[in-house]
Amino acid sequence: MDLGKLKDDQKLDLCRWYFRGGFAFLPFLWAINAVWFFWEAFRRNPFEEQKLIRRYVILSAIGVAIWAAGLTTWIIIFQTNRAEWGEFADKISFTIPQGIP
Amino acid sequence: MQRLNSLLYFLAFVLFLFAGAEATRTKDRIYAQIEGTAACFRRLNGTHQFGCSSRRTGNVGVLQLLKEPADVTWLTKEAPDDTYMAIVHSNMFNEQTLRALKDSPKVGGVVLLRSDTEENNLASYSPEDSCPNRYSGLSSFEKQLCSDSKPWNPKGSSLLQVDWGFPIFYVHSDTSIKNITDCYVKHNSEREGMTTRSLCAMEMQAFMIAAKDSETCFRRSNMINNLNPMRFCDPMGDRNVWATLFARDASEQEKSVIVLAARLDTTSMFEGEAPGAVSTVAGLVTALATYSLLSEMKTELSPARSGGNVMLMLFNGEAYDYIGSSRLVYDMSNGMFPPKWSNVPSLNISKIRMMIELNQLSQINQSTGAVAPMYLHKTLDNPDIAKFIQSMKSQQADLNLNLLDSTATSIPPVSLQSFVKADANFPGVAITDYDQSFTNKFYHSVLDDVKLLKFKYSNGTAPPSDSIQAYLANLSTALGRSIYELIAQKPYTGTTKVEPTQMNELLHCYLNSLNCSLFHSATNDDFTLPEYPPPLYVGVSNSLNAVTGLSGRLIALLTGAETNSSKEECKLNESDVVRCP
Fold first, then answer.
1. CA distance B47 to chain A (A)
2. Residue of A4, A53, A57, A1 whose CA lies nearest to A29
3. Which of A27, B175, B249, B322 is deepest in the core (most CB within 10 A)?
């Protein structure tokens, strides 16, 4: 979709829905939102909806940062302890590695 | 258009060029497939993993022939490349070399080159533990029956109990050995300038998906985490083979069955290469021939037997913590042997009068070269055992045997241990070629083969009187007559005996080729019997070793009675051990 062809109120709608959608454990929506509307929120000359768009963009960025930190921490903990955890680790795995403990 | 045309011409030219050349794929110009190999593979127990595995994509390294210990030092310390594939001939394939290679990060794999025709002139090589089955039978983690200072298998290097971390292959085809050696000599033998010229390298693939221990592996095999569940490993196991001389019924008394036992399996480091000539086959064929002799004596024995019976029992999986015998004892103690559905009365340990087990047997002492004596290891003293030993010894002069009482203070690592573990007063005798420690210096290795047993198949002629065939035939005769005497309470006066020619055929089947006259007679025509000797590794329980079923059919052939049934009737039940007319 080309943002340039949308009116400003439609942009706000879109940004708002991406922000709301992210709460359904979809941090990628927030990541897209933050990047996609960054120009609209911070670079463009002020317009009526910009304040709200900026708010959603900042919140989306914070959300995705928290997700990223959380996921990274979990992946490091899981990967370093997987072999040691034994049965528990196998149970929460989707694919079990082959040939290694 | 002009340009397109010239491009087409060019393409046609290129195609023509390729078509004119040899139609070989680039891959085939770089790589040569190595045939006639056997891989070392991974096994698990309750706590550890053993054996070998490559990386998933295979291990690649520069070929390096190790001719002497100095080459090992050079490879581990000075060699310039990152990864090497160590090639060794059997004289260097020993504990010292392998452990040095295991500790070096430069070794990506090991290849053992040994031609099928190569003479065995090694002093010893046994990859088995010095105390076989150290933690099972009468031994346990807390209580050891075998001591490291005076072990049963003094040549044992425990190489089977090592987790190597790289693949090890056994190459036995002459062409492959030549290919590997030639490539090495042509490209790699000169150590000068190794870093600047092209070298000959090898890729080995033997990726094992099992890991850690059996518990982990079974758990992972039984988990369904996604739509593509996977089997990581299989439990080891096969079937025991047994038969009784007389039909068993409800009138069977306590202490009435004499069990004649031998093992049916052996092991080695390499898949499909487990000949076990001395460790397994010699005892196995002796048990089969003895049982066949007893079946010939059946008509004379029948009126005098007063309820006595003989059971032939071939245990499978004994190399791995007595899989076969421990399962049998377990089933016996739970009244599950024979299985309830067979409608045969169950056989408890208490019904066994005594067990006679044939373990490792060889004619020639490997250290001295002289005719080896046989040792009788008894579990306890009782009148039956005394009578059996006395009866055996009374025949030794006639049958050219040399039987001695064992001086060992404990029971050797044989199946009897499983029975004594369940019943401390279990009467049994193990007949072996060793006294206090194995004389077999190649126990559980690829070298425990037909050459070690000194068996030469005499096709069409009678085997010489000093051959292994004659020796084991005489032992079978002595055993058959002694068992007869135990059951009938009187000496055997007939002349029936085991002929060396029968032993010749039996040994030929188990040591030279499955496609032999006995297995041929024991199977239907639609059976394809391969030309190689049967590998006697116990394998996994859901894929039975061919030799298990063949041994069962062989027993039926040697001892069975003919019935009047038509070809159609006999074809009805495929699982029956029946040879159709």
1. 12
2. A57
3. B322
